Amino acid sequence: MSIIKLLSKKTDKTIFTTPSHNQKAYFSQNLESFYKNDFSEIEGFDNLSDPKNSIMMAQARVSEMLHTKQTFFITQGATTALLAAMKAIIKPTDRVLVARNCHKSIFSGLILTAGVVDWFMPEFNPEWGIYTVIDEKKLEKTLELNDYKAFIMTSPTYEGVNSNIEKIANLCYDHNTYLIVDEAHGSLHYFSSDLGKSAISQGADISVNSLHKTAGALNQCAILNISHKIKNIDISTFQKSINLFHTTSPSYPLLSNIEACINYLDSKEGRAEIANLINEIEKMKHELKNFGVEFFDTANLDKTKILLRKKGVSGFDLSDSMYDDFNIEDELNNSICALYLTGIGTTKAKLDKLKNALKKLPINPSYEFQEAESQPHPLVKLQPIETFNRNFAYVNKEECLLKVSNKMLIPYPPGIGILYPGEAIQKWHLDYLNNDVEVIV
Ligand SMILES: Cc1ncc(COP(=O)(O)O)c(C=O)c1O
To answer: How far is CA 47 from CA 120, 220, 240, 271, 377, in A?
Structure first.
């Protein structure tokens, strides 16, 4: 039976188990339906850490839909899925190549696995101030330099740029390197040919999707996908690894939400919604081009992403003005542009509101965009595992150059690190630091 059906079927037992609330909202009446479905792993329900029944069957059905060898449901976000993937693959002192535009959870994974990191710099577009693709030639040269256990990369990026996973997967395969793709922002790729192919279908060994980002699921819903082509590792290792990080009280509302989300996306209705969303976005973009609005575009773009800038206004001012004057909040912005995130649930009315605001947004005709500068290649002085729980001191900003940072500098969103503990502070970082800088002693 599916998890969704299991929850709708009333149990005839009087249950003296956790959670104590008896499926009633005592103090959060607005969450009544959530409480109604909030069970623990009672008799007849399955167990996420060793699924044999409804969870196992739901995972198997999703796995079939996504063409994976195994898909695991995770109720603690892509963060936990990534940690579990890393722990399954990476042993202490294994060398790991990581694309620098990774989410900060990868740094946590490096601490937890004691992997040795080399950072790989993705391409950077200074006209928009964003990272773009992984250059395959550069990657090939880097893979020649060391025996890397895994290459970890993000595709699509937050802004929707897809790398050529097929080529990257072949390179990794030739070098005996596992390819882990953080596909947190690409959950719709399985269900529309207009967005780019899924990482797994292109040969990635492992991918992670954050279903709450664009796929319409509740916060914290995520899946971890293992490919049929993965070699030299048993699937049970992933279950063991998930069990290291996952709560023993997974949320049934979230589990059923994961199942329902994929069912919906795979349905005729879900696929039509994605196609319609892309169509509405294209129409909006077309109309706004006559109003000085420019959209980031490239052949390998996930078309549901709206990254835009307007001639005559900086990205920061655009973001502020949209928020203050038009009540519209973006997902992220930089000095040049802003990202308006869309996905399942983005209505035409919402897009029209964005469109009308962008038309009216005031500009200063003499304002010119300044190109953005990419962060420098990190200077790693201590490996992530060596940086945890260290003694530190504060030094004056003027004296901190080339000292070893004890702090992460991570503008959020996008949650991409510009300085991690263990890295030497470079001139480029100074603008982001306060007067007292935390350094490892
Ligand atoms: C690329 C990327 N990976 C992973 C994550 C973590 O996802 P979650 O919030 O589902 O844990 C994020 C969150 O912003 C992200 O942008």
So the answer is: 39, 18, 13, 31, 44
